[in-house]
Design a protein that fits this description.
- 25% of the residues lie in helices and 35% in strands.
- By secondary structure, the chain is of the alpha+beta class.
- The protein has 3 domains: 39-52 and 289-390, conserved putative lor/sdh protein from methanococcus maripaludis s2 fold, CATH 2.40.420; 57-62 and 208-285, Elongation Factor Tu (Ef-tu), domain 3; 98-173, Helix Hairpins (Orthogonal Bundle), CATH 1.10.287.
- A 6-stranded antiparallel sheet has the order 2-17-21-20-19-18, with no helix packed on it.
- Strand 20 and strand 21 (333-338) form a beta hairpin.
- The longest helix is centred in the N-terminal third of the chain and has 36 residues, at 99-134.
- It starts with a helix and ends with a strand.
């Protein structure tokens, strides 16, 4: 009885061990599937030329713009000037209430008449005393007193006349008159408003020379010199650009924008209307035609604190990360200062799904025409272009 029992126990133990082994084998995970090969678009880096020029938005302004105001204080009763109106010298732009100044002028004339009467009386006395002195009826001292009285009366009369003239001017100053020909660009006071002497009421852009005014950043202000040429293009007109010359560069930066104001003299006859928006291209800042390496923005990605691209190794068909330095933009492309050289194959689309060392395949557009067999060799970018897309 002992031997069969032992045998049965051994058989059961072996079965349990096999069952546990089978369960452990079933718990093992299946090997992961191979990573899919990504299809990407690539392009061959080539040497092109800078195509876009530095352009700034500007405004057409009159070289001389006057802010006209009354020379006396008062309440505005009429305003004849309107924005956009062309005025000639002598045109009345606005008027003040003249009553107080008219009354003051009348009072000055009355004082002048009184001074004239006193002067005439002193003159008659002097003439009579001169006759008496000739007959030795009065002393020389008495005659001198009469002469002094006449001179005082004469001075008072002249003072009264000057006061009349002054008050007359004050009354005329209640009319605001244009002293130059130009266009009214702004009205800064309305009828019923009480203004003090010198308060701007009307702004006039004088006829004549015109300027294009725009602002440049601090790092480029030193490159724009007075006398350098500038190409001006109107925003509303697609015709031929006109040429201008830098007339003035601000000596100090604007306190808010930290930019420098540049004024360009243009021909008044062909200049756009006042206030028109124009685009200015300083020739001193132009880099058109300069050989550069350019990449589409779709090829760039952020890596750490810098910018990088994926470079394709055609031998192993894998990609590696290549840091690049972006200098500026040229239209929709980025100008690369360092990091890539002509002849490299750079991934231009699909950069967000790649990792270092990943195998890739070159994307083929099913609608594109088949390329000749010689196209398998990387070709240089066509002259005058930033880069050429390589289709495989």
């Amino acid at each position: 009885m002992t031997e069969p029992t032992t045998f049965v126990h051994l058989v059961r133990t072996a079965g349990a061990v096999l069952l546990v082994a089978g369960s452990l084998a079933a718990c093992k995970q299946a090997p992961p599937p191979p990573e899919p090969i990504r299809a990407v678009k690539v392009m061959e880096v080539g040497s092109g030329s800078f195509g876009s020029a530095v352009e700034y938005a500007g405004e057409v302004k009159a070289r001389v713009e006057s802010r006209l105001g009354f020379r006396v204080a008062g309440k505005i009763t009429h305003r004849q000037a309107e924005v956009g109106q062309h005025v000639q010298p002598g045109a009345v732009l606005a008027q003040l209430d003249p009553k107080d100044y008219q009354l003051a002028a009348e009072a000055a004339r009355a004082q002048s008449n009184a001074a004239l009467t006193n002067r005439d009386l002193a003159a008659a006395d002097l003439k009579r005393y001169q006759g008496l002195r000739a007959q030795n009826f009065i002393s020389e001292a008495e005659l001198q007193r009469r002469e002094s009285t006449f001179k005082s009366a004469q001075a008072q009369f002249e003072q009264a006349q000057a006061q009349v003239a002054s008050q007359g001017n004050q009354a005329r100053y209640t009319n605001l008159v244009a002293d130059v020909a130009g266009i009214v660009t702004a009205v800064e006071a309305e009828p019923g408003q009480v203004v003090s002497a010198g308060t701007p009421v009307v702004r006039i852009a004088n006829d004549g020379a015109r300027d294009v005014v725009f602002a440049v950043p601090e790092d480029r202000a030193s490159l724009v010199k007075p006398g350098s040429p500038v190409s001006i293009r109107s925003w509303a007109d697609n015709g031929q650009p006109m040429e201008g010359t830098v007339r003035e560069v601000a000596a100090a930066a604007d306190a808010v924008t930290r930019t420098y104001t540049v004024k360009v003299a243009v021909d008044a006859a062909s200049a756009p209307p006042l206030g028109a928006t124009v685009y200015a291209q300083p020739k001193a800042l132009s880099h058109v035609g300069t050989p550069v390496i350019k990449l589409p923005t779709s090829a760039l990605r952020r890596e750490g604190q810098g910018t990088a691209v994926w470079v394709l190794d055609k031998t192993s068909m894998t990609v590696r990360s290549q840091p690049v330095q972006v200098a500026t933009a040229d239209g929709n492309e980025a100008v690369i200062a360092a990091g890539v050289t002509p002849g490299m194959l750079v991934v231009s689309a699909g950069v967000h799904v790649l990792s270092p060392g990943q195998k890739v395949s070159i994307y083929h557009d099913k609608y594109s025409k088949p390329e000749p067999a010689t196209a398998a060799t990387p070709q240089a970018a066509p002259a005058g272009t930033a880069s050429a897309a390589t289709q495989r």
